[in-house]
Amino acid sequence: MAEAAPRRRSNGSLPLPDQVALVFQGGGALGAYQAGVYEALAETAIEIDWIAGISIGAVNAAIIAGNAPGERVAKLRSFWEIVTSALPSLPMMGGDEWREWMHILSAGFVAGAGVPGFFRPRAVPPVLAPAKSAGALSFYDTAPLVETLDAHVDWDRLNGGPIRLSVGAVNVESGNFRYFDTANERLDARHITASGALPPGLPPVEIDGCWWWDGGIVSNTPLSHVLDRQSEDLLVFQVDLFPARGDMPHTIMDVYSREKDIRYSSRTRQVTDQLMRLRQEREIIRRVLAKLPDSLNDDPDVASLRDLSAEHAVNVVHLIYRAHGWEGGARDFEFSRDSMEHHWAEGRAAVAETMKKGALVARNIIDGKTAAFDLTK
């Protein structure tokens, strides 16, 4: 294992390896949780080298990568205050039942009025718009999001700064999934809005003659993109907005909520499980290679196996938002100020809880081992 950079080791809460990545799921209004996570990580002096995001995760990632370190949290806060400005804080009366009804009403308001600085309803419903027109392909217009991004992101810094950015989208016509990555190309507001263009609510985005939809249609987590391109020892903070585990539903609204959790979290679990399985298999190959006689060192097949089994250490730290029962299945498009503040605070709390148990991760990093952690259970 390569030694962690002394500069980082001296100013962070963990003995950081060569590279640190943030991975942001999609999840609409729940994205404020990611902002809280980033704020708390920044306060611990953990420097981020790479951010990969899908949908709202791409928006948060762009704001972080597209600003100087001292301005990132303020820009995130500005964005989230804009998109929740139509639904200000309300007094919480009557316990969880009251909060559940407020959630439903807030989500209904969003469905009818849109979200400031994000998307607005089309004047003409798509069923009445001319075929093949932009208005025929979605219920909302995302022009406000482009304006908001331009006001919150320095695109030159995003493309030329110290943080690598990757955002995922799916080609409408071919169905192929891809990542737009500042390591290979210049990104702008189109790439971010494409990553969050969830149909049929939001319209596809054209980039260089191709049309793109929300990457969450295919995969709601960009973890595999980061791991597939890993070239150094790596620490990943995987910030998930939907939990894989949950209670048995009791109502039809619970069913809607639980189905969404499973649908959007399953890919994360699959990628993590596959990572650990492949690592174990490579470890077995390395042990077998170590037992071979020196006379086989130059054998082409042995050389191929040696290349296949070579790897860098990776530690994946899961920070998972676990919704309360009163949030229901509409929580990802309930853009109220109360909910935003709640999600933001939960993100901060998740980092604090993880750091309390950070010795487990630290030991693994120092020893050059690979593991996945969820320390907020």
Secondary-structure blueprint of this entry?
Elements: H1 6-11, E1 19-24, H2 32-43, E2 50-53, H3 56-65, H4 72-83, H5 95-113, E3 120-121, E4 140-141, H6 143-152, H7 155-160, E5 164-171, E6 177-181, H8 189-195, E7 205-207, E8 210-214, H9 223-228, E9 234-240, H10 252-291, H11 300-309, E10 314-320, H12 337-356, H13 358-367, E11 371-373
Parallel strand pairs: 1-2, 1-9, 2-5, 9-10, 10-11
Antiparallel strand pairs: 3-4, 5-6, 5-8, 7-8
Helix pairs in contact: 2-4, 2-12, 3-4, 10-11
Protein name: PNPLA domain-containing protein
Pfam family, one: DUF3734
Motif (GXGXXG): 26-31
What level of helicity do the residues show?
40-55%
Spatial gap, N to C terminus: 29 Å
Give the oligomeric state of the chains in this entry, treating copies of one chain as homo and distinct chains as hetero. single chain
How many DSSP H or I helices? 13
Uncertain spans? 1-11
Rg over C-alpha atoms, rounded to the nearest angstrom? 22 Å
Tally of discrete structural domains? 1
Largest sheet: 9 strands, mixed
Residues in β-strands, percent: 5-15%
Q: What is the CATH architecture descriptor?
A: 3-Layer(aba) Sandwich
- CATH topology, by name, is Cytosolic phospholipase A2 catalytic domain
The CATH top-level class label: Alpha Beta
Mean pLDDT, to the nearest integer, reads 88
Structural class label: alpha/beta
SSE ordering: HEHEHHHEEHHEEHEEHEHHEHHE
Which descriptor suits the 3D outline? globular
Secondary structure tally: strands: 11
Motif (GXGXXG): 26-31
Domain PNPLA: 22-227
Keywords: Hydrolase, Lipid degradation, Lipid metabolism
Protein name: PNPLA domain-containing protein
